[in-house]
Design a protein that fits this description.
Distance between the termini: 115 Å
Mean pLDDT: 79
Largest sheet: 2 strands, antiparallel
Shape: flat
Order of helices and strands: HHHEEHHHH
Radius of gyration: 48 Å
Amino acid sequence: MYRVAGTLFVLSAVSMGAAGCMGPTYGTDKTATEQLVDDLGDSISIAPTKRPEKIAYQPRGQLVKPAEARLIAPQQNLASAENPNWVESPEQMRDRLKQEADDNVDNPNYRSPLIVGVTEGKTKSVEQQATEYREARKIMEGRENRRRFMSDPPLEYRKVDDPAKLTDLGESEAAKDKRRRKEAEVAGTGRKWWQLW
């Protein structure tokens, strides 16, 4: 009887130990069963709890202060209108040129940049400016007879069989509105347009 009880006890202890080794430890180096047994044992235990060790704190050293307390002045912000290299806005440039033109009204040698177009250091005449304007209008309206960019559609795609289609605006919004109201009135009565009552 004692042999059987001892054998069963040893077998159960070995099986519990093997089961404990095979379970997950969850980062505590103990299996869930071992952790449960330890927690239950700690809650039932009547032994006094261990006091935490006292930490010997050393006094902190004094702050090291600089010998001279004078601070360096901060750098001037370059992104401000007070900077002489600040870029002039188009509105400021226009106002400056207008003021300059007003100041030189009586000067016959003064040529305002607002009147004369200057590109690449050359002064353009009124005829050149008019020609450039007409070319720009052609490009804007798509009337040019050549492709300027690769993204432009081929010239044969721009051709229309009837030029009147370009100027035809279609039915006016007032006519569309009048037609829709009439259709809605007929649809609401349940009668055809030719029925009087």
